[in-house]
Structures are given as structure tokens and as C-alpha cells.
Design goal:
Specifically methylates position 2 of adenine 2503 in 23S rRNA and position 2 of adenine 37 in tRNAs. Keywords: 4Fe-4S, Cytoplasm, Disulfide bond, Iron, Iron-sulfur, Metal-binding, Methyltransferase, rRNA processing, S-adenosyl-L-methionine, Transferase, tRNA processing. The chain is of the alpha/beta class. It has two domains: 56 residues, DNA polymerase, domain 1 (Orthogonal Bundle); 289 residues, TIM Barrel (Alpha-Beta Barrel). The chain is 36% helix and 18% strand. The chain contains 13 helices and twelve strands. The strands form two sheets. Strands 1-2-3-4-7-8-9-10-11-12 form a ten-stranded mixed sheet. The protein has a two-stranded antiparallel sheet with strand order 5-6. β10, α11 and β11 form a beta-alpha-beta unit. The longest helix has 16 residues. It starts with a helix and ends with a helix. The chain binds S-adenosyl-L-homocysteine. S-adenosyl-L-homocysteine binds next to β8 and β10.
Length: 370
């Protein structure tokens, strides 16, 4: 009997994450602080701890009266995520973290350090409902949306790791954030936009990362792309196109059955016009599936027509998921693809692939853990 007890307590309870300081706007934080019976100026002080000093542990906030620290900890700094594992590769410059959330949900983020920048790849949902067949996260389905604070706290933790020299290369600064981890960011729209604001607002109201250094990657939810264009943010939009024709895209990116290639490209054009930002097109090259020369020509033509100079193609060699019969394209096919896209007047490069040996393709680590 008693041996089954821990199982009861360990059972994942998928549920609403507790409210956290990073869920709140400046005004909401002030109200929350006053509701705790504290003077309003404490709001600014708490925000400085979290966004400025990257500290989420109220017990260490010694400029707060000791008597109120436990209550502040409980009400504004509940523990959102606990690291389950860190995996390092590429000489310690790529670091993947598997986190467990309060309800047992798993999520991943990956920090990649380059000579001139450090980029964090974050998750916007636990799991994903978009069901793209080549993607490990897509195979598992959607667990739940992440809260704003669960998104922001991935960034805070990585910024602290960079500052503290936990990543090879010595202390540094987290400069870029990409929403290319688990989940479809535009399917968790409100929380993602709120998280972008917290990540990019200057301290003490936010983490102070430049909007231009944040990339939101989407399967192509056309109405949400247009809505994002109207937010007055200048984040980079990446669209996971993966093929220029509806027939194949209906299977590679099933949401294409709802919004076609043309509708997605029209929305991307609207985004580019509204923000003045070049749109990135993501294209995972899959051997004998979407890597034919004619598809490269068609891709280049369609993109040039829809977006002119306001587009860049990122080719991603497929990172095969366990059990899949699909594979990356051979190097000569990849080179020919790039050449043909460029010949249509569209810039195109191959994404540097990091973290191959730590299962870094979207969702692979969480899938293994499950
Ligand atoms: N849902 C969003 C963001 C998450 S995935 C989107 O689809 O854009 C980030 C990028 O990784 C997407 O372009 C996605 O299609 C791609 N991706 C997923 N699994 C992959 C794999 N096994 N190999 C290469 N790219 C993959």
C-alpha cells in the first residue's frame, strides 16, 4: 500500500501554472504588490531582482524585509521549472536543458554560443498540436500552452547561465532568442506576445534583449501573422514553408489544409510591409521528398514574386527523428538547391546545425525522456 503513495504524488497533474512576476505587466505587478500589503515601490525593486539581476529566489532578496520574503516567494516567485538534465556538445558551446514544470510537463531549451552572439532556442508550448510528420514534437501532440512566465523564465535562466560563465567561452551575454523549440508560438498567441514584450523591454521592466534579435517561427497561421504585424513589434518572423506547392505541403505541414502556401506568403508580405523586416523562410531539406531541382526553382519564383528582396531562405538539413524513414538530402542536392533559389533572385543559406549528438532537433530530448 504505502509503496504506491509516492506514485500518487509524482503523477503529472497537467494544470495551470502558478502566477509569477513574469506573467505581469508593470501595472499588474504594482497592483499585485499592493494587494500583498506592500508599498508600491517594492514592485520596481522586485522587477530589478528578476529582470536586472536575473534572480528568481526571493529568499536571496536581502533588501526586502525578512518577514515578507516567504510571502513574496509564494505569491510572485513560485518555482516554475526545475532542470532535469543539461546536455553539452560542440565543445561545450551548445547546451540543451530539459526542464520539468510544476505539473510534471517536460520542455526543452537550447543555448548556442557563437563567436559574435549567443542564441537561445525556447519553447512556447509543451508539445505541439501541428502534427508535422518529420518533427519529434509534432509526433507527441500538445500537452498544454506555456504561461508567459514559463516562456520568459527560460530566457532568464539562460541569460544567468551566460553571465555566470556556465557555458564554454567564459562569461558573456545572451543576445538572441528564437521561438524554435517545442510548440507553435502563434497558437499560444497572447502569452507569446506578452513574453516577447517582457523579454525585450528594457530593465527593470524586462530582460532588455533587442526586438530585432528575437525570432518568432510559425507553421504559417496566416491570420495570426497579420495580427502580429499589427503589434508594433520589430521581431523577425520565420515561416516554416518546407515546400512551395500545396500538394506536398498539405502532408508536411498539415495546417496547410487550412491556410495555403499563397495565403501564408500573402500574410508574410503583410508582415514585411508593416514592420520593414525581412521574413525568414525555413525549409527542412528531406532527401527525395522536397529537395528536387524543380521545387527549388518554384520556391525561388514564388518567394521572389510574393516578397521581392524582403525574404531570406534558411535551409535546414533534416535532423532525422528516431524511427522515421526520412533523411537529410545529400550535399550535392543541397548545393544545387541553394544555387537554384539564388538564381531566382532570392537569398538562401544553409543553417549551421548544432547539437546533432544531443538530440537537439525540436522535441527529441523530451520524447526520449517520456
Ligand atoms: N512551430 C514552429 C516552431 C518550432 S520548430 C514552426 O513550425 O516554425 C522550428 C523549426 O524546426 C521549424 O521550421 C520546424 O519545421 C523545424 N524542424 C522540426 N523538426 C525538424 C527536424 N527533424 N529536422 C529539421 N528541422 C526540423
Amino acid at each position: 500500500m504505502s509503496t504506491s503513495l509516492p506514485l500518487v504524488f509524482d503523477a503529472p497533474k497537467r494544470g495551470r501554472p502558478p502566477r509569477h512576476l513574469a506573467d505581469l505587466t508593470d501595472d499588474e505587478l504594482k497592483s499585485a504588490v499592493i494587494a500583498l500589503g506592500l508599498p508600491g515601490f517594492r514592485a520596481n525593486q522586485l522587477a530589478r531582482h528578476y529582470y536586472g539581476r536575473l534572480d528568481a529566489d526571493a529568499a536571496r532578496m536581502t533588501d526586502l524585509p525578512a518577514a515578507v520574503r516567504p510571502q513574496v516567494a509564494e505569491e510572485l516567485f513560485p518555482r516554475l521549472m526545475t532542470p532535469v538534465r543539461h546536455l553539452d556538445c560542440d565543445g561545450g558551446t551548445t547546451r540543451k536543458t530539459l526542464w520539468r514544470l510544476h505539473d510534471g510537463t517536460l520542455l526543452e531549451s537550447v543555448l548556442m554560443r557563437y563567436p559574435d552572439r549567443a542564441t537561445l532556442c525556447i519553447s512556447s508550448q509543451a508539445g505541439c498540436g501541428m502534427a508535422c510528420p518529420f518533427c519529434a514534437t509534432g509526433q507527441g501532440g500538445l500537452d498544454r500552452n506555456l504561461s508567459t512566465a514559463e516562456i520568459v523564465d527560460q530566457v532568464r535562466a539562460a541569460a544567468a547561465a551566460m553571465r555566470d560563465g556556465d557555458v564554454a567561452g567564459g562569461p558573456g551575454r545572451l543576445s538572441n532568442v528564437v521561438f524554435m523549440g517545442m510548440g507553435e508560438p502563434l497558437a499560444n498567441y497572447k502569452r507569446v506576445v506578452a513574453a516577447v514584450r517582457r523579454i525585450t523591454s528594457p530593465a527593470p521592466g524586462g530582460l532588455g534583449i533587442s526586438q530585432r534579435s528575437v525570432t518568432v517561427s510559425t507553421v504559417g497561421l496566416a491570420p495570426a501573422i497579420r495580427k502580429l504585424a499589427d503589434e508594433g513589434l520589430s521581431v523577425t518572423l520565420a515561416v516554416s514553408l518546407h515546400t512551395p506547392d500545396d500538394e506536398l505541403r498539405d502532408t508536411l505541414v498539415p495546417v496547410n489544409n487550412r491556410w495555403s502556401v499563397q495565403e501564408v506568403l500573402d500574410a508574410a508580405r503583410y508582415y514585411a510591409d508593416k514592420t520593414g523586416r525581412r521574413v525568414s523562410i525555413e525549409y527542412a531539406l528531406i532527401r527525395d521528398v522536397n529537395d528536387q531541382p524543380w521545387r527549388a526553382d518554384l520556391l525561388g519564383k514564388k518567394l521572389h514574386r510574393a516578397l521581392g528582396p524582403l525574404v531570406h531562405v534558411n535551409l535546414i538539413p533534416l535532423n532525422p527523428t528516431p524511427g522515421s524513414e526520412w533523411d537529410a538530402s545529400p550535399k550535392p542536392a543541397q548545393d544545387e538547391f541553394v544555387r537554384r533559389v539564388i538564381a531566382q533572385g532570392v537569398s538562401c543559406t544553409v543553417r549551421d546545425t548544432r547539437g546533432q549528438e544531443i538530440a537537439a532537433a525540436c522535441g527529441q530530448l523530451a520524447a526520449e525522456e517520456r
